Amino acid sequence: MAAPIQDDMFTADAIADPYAYYGRLREEDPVHWNEKYELWVVTRHDDLVWLTRHHEMFSSAVFKNDRRPAYPAIDESDLGLYEYVKNYQGSQFIQHDRPDHLEMRRVMHGYFTPKSMEAWRPFVQAAVKELLDAAEAKGSMDVMRDLATPLPVLVIAEMMGVPREDRPYIRELAEKLLYIGRGEYDRMKPLTEGMRGMIDYVSPLVDRRIVDPGDDFISVLARGEKQGVFTRHQVLVNTSLLLLAGHETTINLLCNGTRAFIDHPDQWALLKQDPAGHAKRATEECLRYDSPVVSIQRIAAQDVELRDKVLRKGDRLRWFISSANRDPEAFEGPTTFDITRHPNPHVAFGSGTHHCLGATLARVEGQEVFKALAERFPGFQVEADELDYQPSITFRSLKSLPITWH
Amino acid sequence: MARKLRVWVDQQACVGNAMCEAIAPKVFRLNDNRQSEVADPAGDSEAKILEAAENCPVSAIVVEDAETGERLFP
Predict the structure, then answer these.
(1) Mean pLDDT of the region B10-25
(2) ipTM of the complex in this document
């Protein structure tokens, strides 16, 4: 008989290979009550699509509506810090339900249309070229440090009109904010440091845009304050959110995608035959195969029946992109990395009203990076015995990806 | 007289973001799958329909001149 399902999602095995852990749940108990963390774990593709499209049944205002304590447990002396975290997170537009969410999203939505993001492609191309020129001259690179991190930080900082010299500082703060999806007992300290640092950093930028708006993204948020949609605190938090969301997830797409190509030389060879021609579908397959975001949380807004389970109002649940994107009911040969896969109904950006605001930008960055890598480099090998991931159930983040080429 | 439009939503692409419905609620409505479909292609002005199409995060909305077949979006 198979071993019973263990409920610690933060074990080394589950972090290293979420596909095995959540894949087993998907097969054996697709709506699983995780006793250890007191939450529902939803792993099937069709369930994920259904629940994300029924936003009235599943609240995104997780920090406002979650009555249970933080999980994994935190140091008791940090409970005050946790209140700060809840208040900060709760001010993010993604942590709102309709009608507020729609009103907030409409302030920003127009900035991120496919057409306006397409206009950034030349900027992205130039930035990729510059970074790869530097790497090529060196003869080796850490994809994380030398390409995947600076590129999206450069792009989002440019969109926000953030001074070039401040970018390393933003990255430093962002790394502290990433403790949100992690399990360390003492994670509240770095997390709140990151949050306070971000607020302090963006405050004067927002002050300036209120008085003297431009066409940058902070000015878009400042306009939302003038319209009465956002409070000043919400403008500050959402500026920080976009600075973070605008790059962390893209870093994962670029690193995890590069790793997938290294692990699948046949698909790399295929990409090299026609980099421009394959870039779009290849990027979609990278998004599906090793998705940047592992899981997202909701709170049941009412009693809901899902498969043979009843979720009670107030219950928390997490839906797992990582397992939905490997669901054999939705994808033929789900464990195969196939850069020509089409259609590819992956849910890397979620679905429904909360579908990722920056999806097109992430796609443009992915396409340009994979195309440029295939055009310029023969092939890569990893210069490390083992590749480690951050202990997070929110993000699928490599710690580093050192490579050389022949 | 405003020209007649042919408007449809690619169901393979639509992710149910519902921004089109928020922008032009007489033209677009969500079906049982919570995907957008066209209720009335004459339900709002051409400008509003094009705004909805442009704001679709996955460019699932197609707009054409019904008489000439000219593609207006994407």
Answers:
(1) 97
(2) 0.95
